[in-house]
Amino acid sequence: MAAPALAAAPDLTIGTPTDPTYTTVHVEGSVDAHGEPTGWGYEVSDDGGASWQGTNLGNFTESDGPEAADGEIEGLTAGKTYQVRLAATNYNDGSQGFSPGPDPEFTTDPVPAPTVTIDPVGGVTGTSAHLGGRIEPNPPAGDPSAADVEWHFECSPECPNLPGGTVPAAATGAEQEVGVEASELEPNTEYSVTLVGKNAGEPIEAGPVTFTTAAVDPDVQTLPAFAVRGGTEALVGGSIDPRNSATTYWIEWGRTTGYGQKVPATPADAGSGNQLEYFTRRLTGLTPSTVYHVRLVAESDGHRSDGADVNFETAPSSEAIEQDCPNATLRLEDNSTALPECRAYEQVSPVDKNGFDVAQFPPGGGDESFLAAKDGSKLAFLSTGAFGDSKSAFLSNPYLSSRGPGGWTTHALGPPAFTPEVQLSKSLIDWFTPDLSQAVIMPVTGYHLAPGDFPGDLNLYVENTATGALATVSNGTFSPGRGGYFVLGGSDDGRVVYFVAGRLLENAPSSNSSIYEWRDGNLKLASLLPDGEPVQSGATIVAPSGTNYVSPDGSRVFFEDGEGNLYLREDQHTYEIVGPAPGAVPRFLGATPDLSGIFFRSSLALTPGAAEDGTAKLYRYNSGSKTITQISPNAPNGGNVTSVRGVSPDGSYVYFRSEARYLPGQGVRGRDGTVNLYMWHDGEIALIGTEPSAQLSGEGSDEAKYTKFRVSPDGKFASFESPDRLTAYDNTDATPGPGGASRADSEIYVFDAETKRLTCVSCNPSGEPPSGTAEGADAGASVPNQPIFSSNQQAGVGDDGHIFFNSRDALVPADVNGVQDVYEWRDGQVHLISTGTGNDPAAYADSGSNGDDAFFSTRQQLTSSDRDGLVDLYDARVDGGFPRSAEASLCEGLDSCHGPESRSPAESALGSPGTAPESRADSRRLRLNRALKQCKHRPKKQRARCRAKVKKRFKHSSTGRTH
Length: 963
Hints:
By secondary structure, the protein is mainly beta. The chain is about 5% helix and about 35% strand.
């Protein structure tokens, strides 16, 4: 078989260049593309044809025959000889062609070179200098514009952000002074500087001249100390940037700010580089439960820098839990005696799950699929399976478990699925009221479900989660189409819902989205301007997820228009918060739950005293007074506010990120993409920590981190997850990852606004680095994301600073399974919430607002009711627990009833006591006999010890106390 014929290469001709000027020349030629799609262009060479550069002159053709290719080549250098050729490429087969040689030659008109002189560098400091020089254009008799001189300075090493300029040829008769202030230079560094001037001819250089910046104080940051378990040790230290000078350091510490002691006794080497390095020492011989002060000090060539004072409290001397629990018997029966605060396990998910796991994803993933009621009495969750009274089989099936006197019951949410269509991209549930009594749902169905809906289209409903009754929210005049909805939120009683959608009502714009208010069954347009006219440019929300848009009583809603204006809709009136200006579009960053305070950033000076420096400042709009207050201070050295991370319910505490260094000697210097995390309270700010990770400097990643940030109800505690090293604890895995890579783990931090202390609550209490595994998984900690079906997230951290979290590292000796477990941090100590013995990971789901209920998912069977080995939801509830059923007692110890993981390690060889129908004394004797029988199956050498432990345990259990 013959190979297919290749397309003919284009035929090209070129004439003699004419009319050269200082920077241009006229050329003529032709291109015959033979009907093929062809691109052509002129190329020039100034080195005899050794190399060729493209020019401005070129085009595209599909001509079948010669086509003119004439024009002006621009951008040439004056006084230079060039060769020129015409090149073309066939786009179909890539074949190329060139005009036949020899390549024509031409020379541009010459222009006199400018006179360029560089001056000695002046005004040298540690980080700045004045660079100067003089330029005379020397214009020719012809076109003077060819002699305009563009100038700039070049530094080695580089001087950042150096502007240049132009000396026009009209400035004749004398040299013109040029200069620039170089800033952000590295201290104690030698620089070489050249002044470059260029007209239409070759560039002319003057110099180089050299100068050396002055030495400056090292940059020192004292990091929060880390109290080691036992109370007699602590990790202390911080970070030092030597600023290019040989530097030593030591750490001063003591019970007061007078310190009195230091470590090491002789100053240690801190290097001489120009980047932050961490230095940590372990203090010993401390007194448990005692407050100490510490600061890091660095010195270089007589320049001393003292880090800020940091106070910390050592750990308690003992972590023993002394508990006199009213639910002692229930804790014993449900394997809960190791739990703190008299907690007991309760199975939240149903016993019969039709063979499905309850979690949408395996434990350790999908933690955004859970939402607890504020009082902890209910838990909403998603599952890939249909069970119980479910009438649907979606990919994500929503359920609600409720606690009653006899235990937890589970009810499926949402309407029946009448079609095989499944919802892949989001949950059926878009929003819950705080008590989970009402839900806003958007089911995938083509059937009529409630009055006012549009059969065959997407509809929005409010569902009573107890009765299943539906009310149509999107009950407008027009069908909404398949665009769907974005629910902003609603009132706590579910009678008011705000959402974004296309045109639903007559007065809504047809081409853009609008915000609607559904109140007691009536729908109206909410995105109205202050004059009452609808927003035509599109009303929506452009803000971080996890923030508030609607007040709890439904009287207020926040929205933005397509032009950058921010609005508050309150009691059927609209108020403009702030509008955009050229180059200064405001951005909404967060709000209090009741929208009494709305926080945004703007580079405009919106209040008296605000600096007109172009930096983005943080402002608060007061909904009551309709006034604006500046929150972030003016930045003395520049730097923008990037985001708000959290706000207390009353707005008195604001946690925000900024590139600026507001406090002398604290925080970063505003370079390398680093940002500072601050707390604002009553007009004062405090530095929480510095986030140096480049991956966290972008706004997109920052919004992702926003969902991990929690503020206590009183605002005095904030918790967050971060991979940055924010305390003296080194969060780098002891075991390198795949390929030997060093890994910094994510850890959970809690900041106490009153004591100004930042604590790493998930760092190993022993002070040893996290373990990690070479196979891939690190030893990081995590907290859940914002629930995907609610903006009413739980605080996550209590008014006493307690918090629940996941950890893949073992933080207590009882955690022996090597997988992720659930922990609680409270009063300076960590406690296991899951058992630490299961073969599969456990994952924290959510908690009630006071922390009495801690929900988590696990495959481990923790109570006698759990017998299927599937993933279940549990509540580790304070004073919780339910009596065992008679069936559970009779099944006790039988693998056919429940697996071996249903018991705690201490009870695995002893049996697991239950509650039989007999009297309590008879029941105890029955359980004792069963446990003694279990000892017979132990190895011979262990039987006597086993029987002794059983008798001792049952002797104590008769008193109703656990030990």
